[in-house]
Amino acid sequence: MTFRNQYVPSPDIEVTSNSRQRRSGVCPCCRRAVMLTFHHLIPRKVHRRARFRKKFDRDTLNGGLFICRRCHSGIHASYDEMTLANKFSTPDALLRDPTLRRHFDWVSRQREI
Known about the structure:
By secondary structure, this protein is α+β, with helices and mostly antiparallel strands. It is built from six helices and three strands; from the N terminus they run ββααβαααα. Residues 1-11 have low confidence and may be disordered.
């Protein structure tokens, strides 16, 4: 998958466009082995905007990664879709943010129900 914004994924974080699947694995955010859900790196709500359609190709718009439900909920509770699309369109940007990092650290200490 080629990214126009020159992002090269880390070898341990899989960026994919298969959004209809759930799978078990290790969450790249909190490092827990749990069921994972698909997180669009560029939220689907902004895909129809001309600015994003010009800036990113279809594969990039549909790209994302599998993360656990608690991390996923924390990301969307912390930032709105436009902020996520503009500032957090790569896994590295998500992992470097201090607010999200605190949430991911908290999630890493939680037991799965």
